[in-house]
Design a protein that fits this description.
With about 350 residues, the chain is an alpha/beta fold. The protein has eleven helices and 16 strands. It binds phosphoenolpyruvate and manganese (II) ion.
Length: about 350
Amino acid sequence: MMIVMQEGATEAQIAHVVARIEDVGASAYVSQGERVTIIGAIGDREKLMALPIEAWPGVSRVVAILKPYKLVSREFHPADTVVEARGRKVGGGHFALIAGPCSVETPEQVIEAARAAQAAGATMMRGGAFKPRTSPYAFQGLGREGLELLAAAREETGLPIVTELMDPRDLEAVHEFADVIQVGARNMQNFQLLAEVGKASKPVLLKRGPSATIEELLMAAEYIVKEGNREVIVCERGIRTFETATRNTLDISAVPIIKLASHLPVIVDPSHSAGRLDLVLPLSLAAVAAGADGVIVETHPNPEHALCDGPQSLPTAAFLEYADRVRDLVTWTGKTIS
Ligand code: PEP
Ligand code: MN
């Protein structure tokens, strides 16, 4: 349930509500709005219902949250969440332009992709060191060495790193190097992994599973936020449908649906959505128009020789023009790439 405090409720009154909720073994999550504070109470429904909450000082009213996700819902936190990594922001009018290779392959490849991203005004760089591959015989990523190459590129360009964590056993290494920890589509419902990144002190980029509903995606985000990490960005990256013209089908309606249902920033991955280079720009523009808070795009200095996802990777030489086209539309919508 959600406890809406009166305007001007004091710190002591808020602390009292939190303490009384915790007394019955439930958890209290405080969301400080501009005017009112909302306290989410999650725990045994019967015990919470038995509390005379509306009579406590400073309480305005108690409202049930009907959706299965609570902490990520807009009801609980009406204002947009703004996620920040090294001063770069996502959400609340800030549009993230994230670019880089599917996988980290060589020092030259990473630095070239990072330089192209920086030169075109990207806000973050991506690159996988631990790769979820369909085939066990395919390139699995460079692991820790890949993280070190990303860190060297960050050192030169200043761009924060977005990189994937697949296994809680690699959390320490990924946490050491990443600025944003990616949970990939295949792990969207790896609940132990979600709980682990929920305890981390770095923002999380959570990608939608190829067969997951929007509600399941938000429930996965809830797993992370429930552990205390409120810095979650969700990513629509295409879902499985009967259509074969594209690798996945970009569910563009997911963007406004999630933005209505949740306060979390929503970004779109136009590369994995279609698996086609020629669709990267149109799908990116569609994402901006639909209200997305960013895009995450795969780039490569030489896509023909990429070890992973070459056919959908923008050549770095084409990234500047791509970024200009995206920026024009972002600016038109009133957001800034910053
Ligand atoms: C990726 O972003 O590198 C990736 C593997 O994407 P997804 O998890 O969406 O398939
Ligand atoms: Mn990829």
